[in-house]
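Question (not urgent): is this output format expected?
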Amino acid sequence: MNQTQVRPPLVRRAGEPDADELARMLTGLSELSRYFRFQTAIGTPPRPSVLLRMLCPSGASFVATRGTEIVGHAMWAWAPGESTAELAAVIAEADQHHGLGVRMLAVAAADAIAAGATRFLFVVSAANERTIRMVRRRWPDATVERDGAVLSFVAPARLPDQPEERAAVVDEQVRGLERSEVPATVELRPMHAAVPAC
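Got this back:
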């Protein structure tokens, strides 16, 4: 690797010990980035209850790190509806628009599929054109309902850019999430069993 190249972030499971560093990342976001992710005020620094929901959801939580710095967060949580998992991600300003968000959503999607999710829910601000385009491009069969300024997309549970996933498809690199970190640039597949959250 060329010394001038920036190393890609590593993705790993998240937990309560990541609260301070996640708060630092969220505090550094622009107001627009915070609004697009949360669609409500979260405080500056973010309230502890917000951090706890992000790090210990009813599904699983992941962070992307560069050294000790958190540069991204993705999670899934059980949502109303049979076997429906809501997916969400937020990326530090300097790391946005380089594909890290999609890669982190793929990690969360793989884990949700392994836990039994058959549908994904994405709740997106109607003003967030970039995320709307990403969902439509990566999950083209998603249906959408509008409720005021919020769009709710529901799609069959599969990894982004993949036509279909079989339950038996397992990638050693995803299983590695149980033990350590993996490069965020690696394509990820479902695991047999989800690692318990916090």
